[in-house]
Amino acid sequence: MDNLSGVSVFVQAAETLSFVEAGRVLGISASAVGKSIARLENRLGARLFHRSTRSMTLTAEGRLFLLRCQRILGELAAAEREISDTHSAPRGKLRVSLPLVGGLLNPVLAEFVRRYPEIELETDFSDRRVDVIEEGFDAVVRVGETEDSRLMSRQLGTFQLQLVASPDYLRQMGIPHQPAELQGHACLLYKFPSTGKVEPWPIAGWEKLLAEGINTRLVCNTVDTLIYLAESGQGIACLPDFAVKRAREQGRLQQILREHSHHRGSFKVLWPSSKHLTPKLRVFINTLSARLFLE
Q1: Taking all residues of the chain, what is their mean pLDDT, rounded to a whole number?
Q2: Pseudo-torsion of CA 84, 79, 15, 56, nearest 10°?
Q3: Which of 21, 124, 208, 289 sees the fewest Cβ atoms within 10 Å?
Q4: Verdict on whether the full-model pTM lies above 0.90
């Protein structure tokens, strides 16, 4: 602890470049600051300051040591906040970015705001890849993999894309047993709002089918519309399993080409690694982890 005390005195003196000012902030005399710095320099075997009667500056060794000490004291302060926060109620504003899957997330969000009334939850639903840190989000939920050393992550669950159609449509048009047979069917396609690109279907030869021309009945950028039109018998759609689970259980939709569909996606929650887990962020992550795929 004596070493840590000496480090704190050094950081304060280095940041103010004044023993007098450092002593005033720390509540000790300038002489005590000077003696502490001298003991630290003797222990390190290196001079940390260039001192004269008119000015004081850091040496090269002092600048390097300051960077390390600031990092250590910052980590210590974060650790103290984390321990303190464990005894605090979750409260305050929480800003999160979420993918356009309201049907999946809405029940979880409803439970969250009901359980934690002192948290002001601000949500931004979008399929674009937001910059978590630059745009000031506390956390984001993303589909797929991400490589960003600035972020921590936790996997929430997995899902599959499935080709589905209504029983009435399949009775009228027939059930396709090979991907090539899709050319004789009406296809309902999803377009990403941010890029304008059509989401590829997870079947072999999809690009070839698209190039040769398929019967595109509809292209839209909302999952709810695709589900409605598929249930109405307007064609075949490719949708995530969680979005069509109830419709399939109730017989409104039927999966096709199961043996030819190969897809596995994942949901992850990410947050800045530089931030310690505040109570509001911790309970948000825990709620997502516990409930997202239990409905």
Answers
A1: 86
A2: 120
A3: 208
A4: no
